[in-house]
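Deliverable D5.2: sample structural annotation.
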Amino acid sequence: MLEGKAVIGETDMPQTMQQDALDVASKALDFFDVTEATEIARFIKKEFDRTYGGGWQCIVGKDFGSFVTHCHGCFIYFCIGSFAILLFRGSAAPEAEAANQFAALDTVEA
């Protein structure tokens, strides 16, 4: 794992889900080399899909911008050392809310 403590930049997740995200990321960093950002992201996404249901998206890297629409309570952006991780449950369109597929939607820039 990369040295250093995780620093949460932005989140609206419940505390237990936040801790799961940090634990899964730490596990991924133990399994994969830091040069394998795609594999780290895949691991984190699949773990959250398995634990919390489908629709999770994960972006991992050292320099990226984002502007995403996510389900309320399903967003976290954090850093471990110089590595940034963005994990969120996405939604294709606000109409999904009307179909009761998701709770409230938020758009956050990270």
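Annotation notes: Confidence is low (pLDDT under 50) at residues 96-110. The chain has three helices and five strands.
The annotation will be released with the project's public dataset once the embargo ends.
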